[in-house]
Amino acid sequence: MNIALLIIFAFLLLSFYSGIRARQGKDMNMEQWTVGGRGFGSIFIFLLVAGEIYTTFTFLGGSGWAYSKGAPSYYVLSYISLAYVISYWLLPPIWRYAKEHKLVSQSDFFVSKYNSPMLGILVAAVGVIAIIPYLVLQFKGLGIIVSEASYGTISPAAAVWLGVIAVTIYVMLSGIHGSAWTAAIKDIMIFFVVIFLGIYLPYHYYGGIQPMFAAVHAANPGFLTFPTEGLSTSWYISTVLITVFGFYMWPHTFGSVFSAKNENVFRKNTIMLPLYTLMLLFVFFVGFTAILQVPGLKGADGDLSLLRLSLKTFDPWIVGIIGAAGLLTALVPGSMLLMTGATLLAKNVYKVMAPATSDVQIAKVAKLLVPVLSLISLYFTLSGGDTLVTLLLMGYSLVTQLFPALLFSLGKQPLVNKYGAFAGIAAGVLTVAYTTVSQATLATLFPHWPSVIQDLNIGVVALLVNIVVMFGVTLITKPLFVNGQQAANTEGTPTFK
Protein backbone atom coordinates (compact mmCIF):
# COMPACT_ATOMS: atom_id res chain seq x y z
CA MET A 1 0.00 0.00 0.00
CA ASN A 2 1.56 3.32 -1.09
CA ILE A 3 1.83 6.43 1.10
CA ALA A 4 -0.81 8.32 -0.91
CA LEU A 5 -3.41 5.63 -0.25
CA LEU A 6 -2.50 5.53 3.46
CA ILE A 7 -3.07 9.28 3.77
CA ILE A 8 -6.42 9.06 1.95
CA PHE A 9 -7.59 6.24 4.24
CA ALA A 10 -6.44 8.15 7.33
CA PHE A 11 -8.62 11.11 6.40
CA LEU A 12 -11.53 8.80 5.55
CA LEU A 13 -11.28 7.31 9.05
CA LEU A 14 -10.94 10.79 10.59
CA SER A 15 -14.09 12.02 8.85
CA PHE A 16 -15.93 8.84 9.84
CA TYR A 17 -14.85 9.26 13.48
CA SER A 18 -15.81 12.95 13.50
CA GLY A 19 -19.20 12.16 12.03
CA ILE A 20 -19.94 9.49 14.63
CA ARG A 21 -18.60 11.54 17.56
CA ALA A 22 -20.77 14.51 16.61
CA ARG A 23 -23.87 12.75 17.94
CA GLN A 24 -22.57 12.41 21.50
CA GLY A 25 -24.74 14.05 24.14
CA LYS A 26 -27.61 14.66 21.72
CA ASP A 27 -31.02 13.05 21.43
CA MET A 28 -31.15 12.28 17.70
CA ASN A 29 -34.82 13.11 17.19
CA MET A 30 -36.02 14.44 13.85
CA GLU A 31 -35.23 18.08 14.63
CA GLN A 32 -31.71 17.32 15.89
CA TRP A 33 -30.99 14.92 13.03
CA THR A 34 -32.13 17.24 10.24
CA VAL A 35 -31.61 20.84 11.45
CA GLY A 36 -29.27 20.47 14.44
CA GLY A 37 -31.87 21.72 16.93
CA ARG A 38 -31.77 25.11 15.13
CA GLY A 39 -28.68 26.01 17.12
CA PHE A 40 -25.89 26.51 14.57
CA GLY A 41 -24.07 29.86 14.61
CA SER A 42 -22.29 31.75 11.84
CA ILE A 43 -19.27 29.44 11.66
CA PHE A 44 -21.17 26.19 11.26
CA ILE A 45 -23.67 27.71 8.82
CA PHE A 46 -20.73 29.06 6.83
CA LEU A 47 -19.12 25.61 6.80
CA LEU A 48 -22.35 23.87 5.85
CA VAL A 49 -23.14 26.24 2.99
CA ALA A 50 -19.55 26.20 1.78
CA GLY A 51 -19.43 22.45 2.35
CA GLU A 52 -22.43 21.96 0.10
CA ILE A 53 -21.10 24.22 -2.64
CA TYR A 54 -17.38 23.36 -2.69
CA THR A 55 -17.81 19.77 -3.76
CA THR A 56 -16.13 17.37 -6.17
CA PHE A 57 -17.50 19.68 -8.84
CA THR A 58 -15.26 22.46 -7.50
CA PHE A 59 -12.32 20.11 -7.23
CA LEU A 60 -12.66 18.32 -10.57
CA GLY A 61 -15.50 19.83 -12.62
CA GLY A 62 -14.23 23.42 -12.38
CA SER A 63 -10.71 22.51 -13.47
CA GLY A 64 -12.13 20.07 -16.04
CA TRP A 65 -14.23 22.76 -17.71
CA ALA A 66 -11.36 25.26 -17.67
CA TYR A 67 -9.29 22.54 -19.38
CA SER A 68 -11.98 21.59 -21.93
CA LYS A 69 -14.09 24.73 -22.47
CA GLY A 70 -12.02 27.76 -21.51
CA ALA A 71 -13.84 31.04 -20.79
CA PRO A 72 -17.37 29.56 -20.36
CA SER A 73 -16.18 27.89 -17.15
CA TYR A 74 -16.30 31.30 -15.44
CA TYR A 75 -20.09 31.05 -15.20
CA VAL A 76 -19.46 29.14 -11.96
CA LEU A 77 -17.67 32.08 -10.36
CA SER A 78 -20.46 34.47 -11.37
CA TYR A 79 -23.53 32.55 -10.28
CA ILE A 80 -22.24 31.52 -6.86
CA SER A 81 -21.21 35.08 -5.97
CA LEU A 82 -24.57 36.51 -7.11
CA ALA A 83 -26.52 33.85 -5.23
CA TYR A 84 -24.71 34.72 -2.01
CA VAL A 85 -25.65 38.38 -2.47
CA ILE A 86 -29.32 37.48 -2.99
CA SER A 87 -29.25 35.40 0.21
CA TYR A 88 -29.01 38.62 2.26
CA TRP A 89 -32.70 39.30 1.50
CA LEU A 90 -33.96 35.82 0.62
CA LEU A 91 -32.92 33.68 3.58
CA PRO A 92 -34.01 35.68 6.68
CA PRO A 93 -37.77 35.55 5.88
CA ILE A 94 -37.47 31.84 5.09
CA TRP A 95 -35.71 31.22 8.41
CA ARG A 96 -38.26 33.26 10.40
CA TYR A 97 -41.19 31.41 8.88
CA ALA A 98 -39.54 28.01 9.37
CA LYS A 99 -38.78 28.68 13.03
CA GLU A 100 -42.28 29.97 13.73
CA HIS A 101 -43.88 26.88 12.19
CA LYS A 102 -41.17 24.37 13.29
CA LEU A 103 -40.37 23.24 9.74
CA VAL A 104 -37.58 20.72 9.06
CA SER A 105 -37.62 20.27 5.28
CA GLN A 106 -38.02 22.29 2.10
CA SER A 107 -41.35 20.62 1.34
CA ASP A 108 -42.63 21.63 4.79
CA PHE A 109 -42.23 25.26 3.73
CA PHE A 110 -44.36 24.84 0.60
CA VAL A 111 -46.95 22.74 2.43
CA SER A 112 -47.34 25.40 5.12
CA LYS A 113 -47.32 28.41 2.78
CA TYR A 114 -49.84 26.96 0.32
CA ASN A 115 -51.75 24.71 2.74
CA SER A 116 -51.31 21.74 0.39
CA PRO A 117 -49.75 18.38 1.34
CA MET A 118 -50.04 17.36 -2.32
CA LEU A 119 -47.83 20.28 -3.31
CA GLY A 120 -45.40 19.07 -0.65
CA ILE A 121 -45.28 15.66 -2.29
CA LEU A 122 -44.52 17.25 -5.66
CA VAL A 123 -41.77 19.44 -4.19
CA ALA A 124 -40.29 16.40 -2.42
CA ALA A 125 -40.38 14.39 -5.65
CA VAL A 126 -38.64 17.16 -7.59
CA GLY A 127 -36.04 17.50 -4.85
CA VAL A 128 -35.26 13.79 -4.67
CA ILE A 129 -35.11 13.43 -8.47
CA ALA A 130 -32.64 16.35 -8.60
CA ILE A 131 -30.65 14.98 -5.67
CA ILE A 132 -29.89 11.70 -7.45
CA PRO A 133 -27.71 13.22 -10.23
CA TYR A 134 -26.06 15.46 -7.61
CA LEU A 135 -25.24 12.39 -5.50
CA VAL A 136 -23.97 10.64 -8.62
CA LEU A 137 -21.73 13.66 -9.21
CA GLN A 138 -20.25 13.33 -5.71
CA PHE A 139 -19.78 9.57 -5.87
CA LYS A 140 -18.37 9.68 -9.38
CA GLY A 141 -15.90 12.36 -8.30
CA LEU A 142 -14.98 10.35 -5.21
CA GLY A 143 -14.17 7.31 -7.36
CA ILE A 144 -12.03 9.37 -9.73
CA ILE A 145 -10.12 11.09 -6.91
CA VAL A 146 -9.31 8.00 -4.84
CA SER A 147 -8.44 5.84 -7.84
CA GLU A 148 -6.17 8.44 -9.45
CA ALA A 149 -4.54 9.58 -6.20
CA SER A 150 -3.83 5.96 -5.21
CA TYR A 151 -1.98 5.48 -8.52
CA GLY A 152 -4.59 2.96 -9.61
CA THR A 153 -4.18 0.75 -6.54
CA ILE A 154 -7.92 1.04 -5.87
CA SER A 155 -10.42 0.98 -8.73
CA PRO A 156 -13.01 3.76 -9.03
CA ALA A 157 -15.79 1.26 -8.25
CA ALA A 158 -14.10 0.05 -5.06
CA ALA A 159 -13.41 3.64 -3.98
CA VAL A 160 -17.06 4.56 -4.50
CA TRP A 161 -18.24 1.57 -2.46
CA LEU A 162 -15.95 2.47 0.47
CA GLY A 163 -17.00 6.12 0.47
CA VAL A 164 -20.70 5.32 0.19
CA ILE A 165 -20.58 2.85 3.08
CA ALA A 166 -18.77 5.35 5.32
CA VAL A 167 -21.04 8.31 4.58
CA THR A 168 -24.21 6.19 4.86
CA ILE A 169 -23.31 4.97 8.33
CA TYR A 170 -22.41 8.34 9.79
CA VAL A 171 -25.44 10.06 8.23
CA MET A 172 -27.75 7.48 9.79
CA LEU A 173 -26.13 7.98 13.19
CA SER A 174 -25.34 11.70 13.35
CA GLY A 175 -27.35 13.52 10.67
CA ILE A 176 -26.46 17.16 10.10
CA HIS A 177 -24.12 17.25 13.12
CA GLY A 178 -21.79 14.78 11.42
CA SER A 179 -21.89 16.80 8.20
CA ALA A 180 -21.01 20.03 10.03
CA TRP A 181 -17.96 18.60 11.80
CA THR A 182 -16.69 16.87 8.68
CA ALA A 183 -17.18 20.14 6.79
CA ALA A 184 -14.83 21.84 9.25
CA ILE A 185 -12.03 19.40 8.39
CA LYS A 186 -12.78 19.60 4.68
CA ASP A 187 -12.83 23.38 4.43
CA ILE A 188 -9.47 23.78 6.13
CA MET A 189 -7.92 21.25 3.77
CA ILE A 190 -9.54 22.45 0.56
CA PHE A 191 -8.56 26.05 1.29
CA PHE A 192 -4.85 25.30 1.52
CA VAL A 193 -4.77 22.62 -1.19
CA VAL A 194 -6.59 24.65 -3.84
CA ILE A 195 -4.64 27.84 -3.23
CA PHE A 196 -1.34 25.93 -3.22
CA LEU A 197 -2.13 24.15 -6.50
CA GLY A 198 -3.48 27.28 -8.16
CA ILE A 199 -0.32 29.26 -7.40
CA TYR A 200 2.41 26.62 -7.50
CA LEU A 201 1.52 24.84 -10.75
CA PRO A 202 1.40 27.94 -13.04
CA TYR A 203 4.69 29.18 -11.57
CA HIS A 204 6.29 25.73 -11.78
CA TYR A 205 5.47 25.19 -15.46
CA TYR A 206 5.23 28.72 -16.86
CA GLY A 207 6.88 31.09 -14.41
CA GLY A 208 3.64 32.75 -13.37
CA ILE A 209 -0.09 33.09 -13.95
CA GLN A 210 0.16 35.69 -16.73
CA PRO A 211 2.75 33.64 -18.68
CA MET A 212 0.47 30.61 -18.29
CA PHE A 213 -2.42 32.45 -19.93
CA ALA A 214 -0.09 33.74 -22.64
CA ALA A 215 1.09 30.20 -23.41
CA VAL A 216 -2.48 28.86 -23.59
CA HIS A 217 -3.51 31.72 -25.87
CA ALA A 218 -0.52 31.18 -28.14
CA ALA A 219 -1.30 27.47 -28.46
CA ASN A 220 -5.04 27.97 -28.95
CA PRO A 221 -6.04 31.54 -29.87
CA GLY A 222 -9.60 32.33 -28.85
CA PHE A 223 -9.77 29.60 -26.19
CA LEU A 224 -9.84 32.19 -23.41
CA THR A 225 -12.76 34.14 -24.94
CA PHE A 226 -16.39 33.21 -25.41
CA PRO A 227 -17.21 31.54 -28.73
CA THR A 228 -19.67 33.31 -31.03
CA GLU A 229 -21.98 30.27 -31.04
CA GLY A 230 -22.74 27.47 -28.60
CA LEU A 231 -21.31 28.40 -25.18
CA SER A 232 -21.58 32.07 -26.10
CA THR A 233 -22.33 35.09 -23.96
CA SER A 234 -26.09 34.48 -24.25
CA TRP A 235 -25.55 30.93 -22.97
CA TYR A 236 -23.40 32.37 -20.18
CA ILE A 237 -25.96 34.96 -19.06
CA SER A 238 -28.92 32.58 -19.21
CA THR A 239 -27.03 29.83 -17.39
CA VAL A 240 -25.96 32.23 -14.64
CA LEU A 241 -29.60 33.34 -14.33
CA ILE A 242 -30.91 29.79 -14.02
CA THR A 243 -28.28 28.71 -11.53
CA VAL A 244 -28.65 31.83 -9.36
CA PHE A 245 -32.39 31.15 -9.05
CA GLY A 246 -31.76 27.49 -8.34
CA PHE A 247 -28.88 27.93 -5.91
CA TYR A 248 -30.94 27.84 -2.70
CA MET A 249 -33.61 25.61 -4.21
CA TRP A 250 -31.50 22.52 -3.67
CA PRO A 251 -33.32 20.77 -0.82
CA HIS A 252 -30.16 20.29 1.25
CA THR A 253 -29.11 23.94 0.89
CA PHE A 254 -32.65 25.14 1.64
CA GLY A 255 -32.83 22.82 4.65
CA SER A 256 -29.50 23.99 6.07
CA VAL A 257 -31.08 27.46 6.43
CA PHE A 258 -33.38 26.05 9.13
CA SER A 259 -30.41 25.06 11.32
CA ALA A 260 -29.29 28.66 12.04
CA LYS A 261 -29.87 30.05 15.53
CA ASN A 262 -30.90 33.50 14.22
CA GLU A 263 -31.40 35.36 10.95
CA ASN A 264 -28.32 37.58 11.36
CA VAL A 265 -26.20 34.51 10.67
CA PHE A 266 -27.09 34.81 6.99
CA ARG A 267 -26.30 38.51 6.77
CA LYS A 268 -22.86 37.96 8.33
CA ASN A 269 -22.13 35.11 5.95
CA THR A 270 -23.20 37.20 2.95
CA ILE A 271 -20.14 39.36 3.61
CA MET A 272 -17.65 36.47 3.64
CA LEU A 273 -19.03 33.87 1.23
CA PRO A 274 -18.48 35.85 -2.01
CA LEU A 275 -14.81 36.28 -1.00
CA TYR A 276 -14.60 32.55 -0.37
CA THR A 277 -15.76 32.04 -3.95
CA LEU A 278 -12.44 33.47 -5.15
CA MET A 279 -10.98 30.04 -4.36
CA LEU A 280 -12.54 28.91 -7.62
CA LEU A 281 -10.06 31.06 -9.54
CA PHE A 282 -7.24 28.86 -8.30
CA VAL A 283 -9.12 25.76 -9.48
CA PHE A 284 -9.42 27.33 -12.94
CA PHE A 285 -5.70 28.15 -12.93
CA VAL A 286 -4.96 24.44 -12.43
CA GLY A 287 -7.19 23.49 -15.37
CA PHE A 288 -5.56 26.08 -17.64
CA THR A 289 -2.08 24.92 -16.57
CA ALA A 290 -2.97 21.32 -17.46
CA ILE A 291 -3.95 22.15 -21.06
CA LEU A 292 -0.38 22.05 -22.34
CA GLN A 293 1.07 19.77 -19.66
CA VAL A 294 -1.36 16.83 -19.86
CA PRO A 295 -2.86 17.23 -23.34
CA GLY A 296 -5.31 14.87 -25.01
CA LEU A 297 -7.99 14.47 -22.32
CA LYS A 298 -11.28 14.30 -24.21
CA GLY A 299 -14.92 14.52 -23.07
CA ALA A 300 -15.50 13.34 -19.50
CA ASP A 301 -11.76 12.68 -19.09
CA GLY A 302 -11.29 16.46 -18.84
CA ASP A 303 -12.38 16.06 -15.21
CA LEU A 304 -9.09 14.20 -14.63
CA SER A 305 -6.92 17.20 -15.50
CA LEU A 306 -6.22 18.34 -11.92
CA LEU A 307 -5.29 14.88 -10.71
CA ARG A 308 -3.25 13.92 -13.78
CA LEU A 309 -1.23 17.11 -13.47
CA SER A 310 -0.73 16.49 -9.74
CA LEU A 311 0.49 12.94 -10.39
CA LYS A 312 2.95 14.29 -12.94
CA THR A 313 4.24 17.01 -10.62
CA PHE A 314 4.30 15.89 -6.99
CA ASP A 315 5.63 13.16 -4.74
CA PRO A 316 3.12 10.50 -3.56
CA TRP A 317 2.67 12.02 -0.09
CA ILE A 318 1.54 15.34 -1.57
CA VAL A 319 -0.73 13.49 -3.99
CA GLY A 320 -2.20 11.71 -0.95
CA ILE A 321 -3.06 15.03 0.73
CA ILE A 322 -4.64 16.30 -2.51
CA GLY A 323 -6.63 13.08 -2.79
CA ALA A 324 -7.76 13.31 0.84
CA ALA A 325 -9.02 16.86 0.30
CA GLY A 326 -10.89 15.70 -2.79
CA LEU A 327 -12.37 12.78 -0.86
CA LEU A 328 -13.83 15.15 1.73
CA THR A 329 -15.36 17.34 -1.00
CA ALA A 330 -17.49 14.30 -1.87
CA LEU A 331 -18.35 13.13 1.64
CA VAL A 332 -19.67 16.42 3.08
CA PRO A 333 -22.22 17.32 0.38
CA GLY A 334 -22.98 13.63 -0.13
CA SER A 335 -23.98 13.31 3.52
CA MET A 336 -26.24 16.39 3.33
CA LEU A 337 -27.87 15.13 0.15
CA LEU A 338 -28.59 11.69 1.60
CA MET A 339 -30.04 13.11 4.81
CA THR A 340 -32.20 15.63 2.96
CA GLY A 341 -33.52 13.15 0.41
CA ALA A 342 -34.44 10.69 3.15
CA THR A 343 -36.16 13.43 5.17
CA LEU A 344 -38.25 14.55 2.19
CA LEU A 345 -39.42 11.03 1.43
CA ALA A 346 -40.19 10.17 5.06
CA LYS A 347 -41.83 13.39 6.24
CA ASN A 348 -43.44 14.77 3.10
CA VAL A 349 -44.39 11.60 1.24
CA TYR A 350 -44.63 8.68 3.68
CA LYS A 351 -46.20 10.81 6.44
CA VAL A 352 -48.87 12.10 4.03
CA MET A 353 -49.69 8.56 2.93
CA ALA A 354 -49.73 7.31 6.53
CA PRO A 355 -50.83 10.30 8.66
CA ALA A 356 -51.09 8.26 11.85
CA THR A 357 -47.33 7.70 11.88
CA SER A 358 -45.65 9.32 14.90
CA ASP A 359 -42.66 11.67 14.69
CA VAL A 360 -40.46 8.99 16.27
CA GLN A 361 -41.46 6.50 13.58
CA ILE A 362 -40.90 9.10 10.84
CA ALA A 363 -37.36 9.66 12.14
CA LYS A 364 -36.72 5.90 11.93
CA VAL A 365 -38.13 5.72 8.41
CA ALA A 366 -35.91 8.62 7.33
CA LYS A 367 -32.79 6.92 8.66
CA LEU A 368 -33.71 3.64 6.98
CA LEU A 369 -34.17 5.44 3.65
CA VAL A 370 -30.57 6.69 3.71
CA PRO A 371 -29.04 3.37 2.51
CA VAL A 372 -31.83 3.04 -0.08
CA LEU A 373 -30.91 6.37 -1.65
CA SER A 374 -27.23 5.44 -1.39
CA LEU A 375 -27.75 2.23 -3.36
CA ILE A 376 -29.86 3.93 -6.04
CA SER A 377 -27.21 6.62 -6.51
CA LEU A 378 -24.49 3.99 -6.47
CA TYR A 379 -26.19 2.14 -9.33
CA PHE A 380 -26.30 5.24 -11.53
CA THR A 381 -22.75 6.16 -10.55
CA LEU A 382 -21.36 2.84 -11.73
CA SER A 383 -23.42 2.79 -14.93
CA GLY A 384 -23.36 6.46 -16.05
CA GLY A 385 -20.90 8.50 -18.09
CA ASP A 386 -21.76 12.21 -18.22
CA THR A 387 -19.26 14.88 -17.19
CA LEU A 388 -19.60 16.38 -13.73
CA VAL A 389 -20.75 19.76 -15.08
CA THR A 390 -23.49 18.14 -17.19
CA LEU A 391 -24.84 16.29 -14.14
CA LEU A 392 -24.86 19.47 -12.08
CA LEU A 393 -26.63 21.55 -14.73
CA MET A 394 -29.31 18.87 -15.18
CA GLY A 395 -30.10 18.96 -11.45
CA TYR A 396 -30.16 22.77 -11.47
CA SER A 397 -32.73 22.83 -14.28
CA LEU A 398 -35.04 20.77 -12.07
CA VAL A 399 -34.72 22.57 -8.73
CA THR A 400 -34.96 25.99 -10.36
CA GLN A 401 -38.59 25.16 -11.17
CA LEU A 402 -39.34 25.59 -7.45
CA PHE A 403 -38.09 29.19 -7.36
CA PRO A 404 -41.16 31.03 -8.75
CA ALA A 405 -43.53 29.34 -6.28
CA LEU A 406 -41.13 30.19 -3.45
CA LEU A 407 -40.67 33.79 -4.55
CA PHE A 408 -44.40 34.43 -4.89
CA SER A 409 -45.04 32.98 -1.42
CA LEU A 410 -42.72 35.21 0.63
CA GLY A 411 -45.33 37.86 1.41
CA LYS A 412 -48.05 37.52 4.01
CA GLN A 413 -50.25 35.87 1.38
CA PRO A 414 -48.91 34.02 -1.70
CA LEU A 415 -49.46 35.85 -5.00
CA VAL A 416 -50.52 32.57 -6.63
CA ASN A 417 -52.69 29.80 -5.24
CA LYS A 418 -51.70 26.20 -4.62
CA TYR A 419 -53.25 25.02 -7.88
CA GLY A 420 -51.19 27.48 -9.86
CA ALA A 421 -48.02 26.63 -7.90
CA PHE A 422 -48.56 22.90 -8.44
CA ALA A 423 -49.33 23.27 -12.15
CA GLY A 424 -46.40 25.64 -12.75
CA ILE A 425 -43.84 23.39 -11.07
CA ALA A 426 -45.21 20.33 -12.87
CA ALA A 427 -45.14 22.08 -16.26
CA GLY A 428 -41.58 23.30 -15.72
CA VAL A 429 -40.33 19.88 -14.62
CA LEU A 430 -42.02 18.13 -17.55
CA THR A 431 -40.39 20.63 -19.92
CA VAL A 432 -36.99 19.87 -18.38
CA ALA A 433 -37.68 16.13 -18.63
CA TYR A 434 -38.67 16.38 -22.29
CA THR A 435 -35.68 18.49 -23.30
CA THR A 436 -33.30 16.25 -21.35
CA VAL A 437 -34.59 12.97 -22.77
CA SER A 438 -34.88 14.29 -26.33
CA GLN A 439 -31.63 16.31 -25.99
CA ALA A 440 -33.52 19.26 -27.40
CA THR A 441 -32.05 22.76 -27.39
CA LEU A 442 -33.37 26.04 -28.70
CA ALA A 443 -31.07 25.52 -31.70
CA THR A 444 -32.75 22.18 -32.56
CA LEU A 445 -36.26 23.46 -31.82
CA PHE A 446 -35.83 26.72 -33.75
CA PRO A 447 -33.01 26.17 -36.29
CA HIS A 448 -33.67 29.42 -38.17
CA TRP A 449 -33.60 31.73 -35.17
CA PRO A 450 -30.50 33.90 -34.51
CA SER A 451 -27.71 32.29 -32.48
CA VAL A 452 -28.19 34.75 -29.61
CA ILE A 453 -31.57 33.05 -29.01
CA GLN A 454 -30.50 29.53 -29.95
CA ASP A 455 -27.66 29.56 -27.42
CA LEU A 456 -29.89 30.38 -24.44
CA ASN A 457 -29.94 27.72 -21.74
CA ILE A 458 -33.01 25.55 -22.37
CA GLY A 459 -33.80 25.88 -18.66
CA VAL A 460 -34.98 29.43 -19.37
CA VAL A 461 -37.77 27.97 -21.54
CA ALA A 462 -38.84 25.64 -18.73
CA LEU A 463 -38.87 28.55 -16.28
CA LEU A 464 -41.01 30.70 -18.60
CA VAL A 465 -43.45 27.80 -19.14
CA ASN A 466 -43.58 27.38 -15.36
CA ILE A 467 -44.47 31.05 -14.71
CA VAL A 468 -47.05 31.30 -17.51
CA VAL A 469 -48.82 28.11 -16.39
CA MET A 470 -48.63 29.17 -12.73
CA PHE A 471 -50.40 32.50 -13.26
CA GLY A 472 -52.74 31.05 -15.89
CA VAL A 473 -54.01 28.30 -13.59
CA THR A 474 -54.24 30.76 -10.69
CA LEU A 475 -56.47 33.07 -12.75
CA ILE A 476 -58.63 30.20 -14.00
CA THR A 477 -59.17 28.71 -10.53
CA LYS A 478 -59.51 31.99 -8.62
CA PRO A 479 -63.27 32.35 -9.16
CA LEU A 480 -63.78 28.73 -8.07
CA PHE A 481 -61.55 28.79 -5.01
CA VAL A 482 -61.15 31.38 -2.28
CA ASN A 483 -58.11 31.04 0.04
CA GLY A 484 -57.81 27.40 -0.93
CA GLN A 485 -61.48 26.60 -0.16
CA GLN A 486 -64.17 25.73 -2.70
CA ALA A 487 -66.71 28.40 -3.47
CA ALA A 488 -70.29 27.64 -2.45
CA ASN A 489 -71.52 27.13 -6.01
CA THR A 490 -69.06 24.26 -6.59
CA GLU A 491 -70.19 22.22 -3.61
CA GLY A 492 -69.76 18.53 -4.18
CA THR A 493 -66.80 18.86 -6.51
CA PRO A 494 -63.66 17.06 -5.24
CA THR A 495 -61.14 19.40 -3.62
CA PHE A 496 -57.39 19.52 -4.18
CA LYS A 497 -55.53 19.04 -0.89
Outline the structure in words:
With 497 residues, the protein is mainly alpha-helical. It has one domain: Sodium/glucose cotransporter (Up-down Bundle). It contains 23 helices and two strands. Strands 1-2 form a two-stranded antiparallel ribbon. The longest helix has 38 residues, at 316-353. The protein is globular, with a radius of gyration of 23 Å. Residues 486-496 have low confidence and may be disordered.
Key traits:
single chain, globular, disordered C terminus, Sodium/glucose cotransporter, 497 residues, mainly alpha
Q: Please give the count of helices.
A: 23
| Percent strand | under 5%
Q: What percentage of residues falls in helices of 4 or more residues?
A: over 70%
Distance between the termini: 59 Å
**What is the domain tally?**
1
Q: What topology emerges from the helices and strands here?
A:
Blueprint: H1 3-21, H2 30-35, H3 42-53, H4 56-68, H5 75-101, H6 106-114, H7 117-149, H8 156-174, H9 176-206, H10 209-219, H11 233-246, H12 251-257, H13 264-276, H14 279-293, H15 305-313, H16 316-353, H17 359-383, H18 388-399, H19 403-407, H20 418-438, H21 442-445, H22 451-454, H23 458-477, E1 481-482, E2 485-486
Antiparallel strand pairs: 1-2
Helix pairs in contact: 1-8, 1-9, 1-16, 3-9, 3-12, 3-13, 3-16, 4-14, 4-16, 5-11, 5-13, 6-7, 7-8, 7-16, 7-17, 7-18, 7-20, 8-9, 8-16, 8-17, 9-10, 9-14, 9-16, 10-14, 12-16, 14-15, 16-17, 20-23
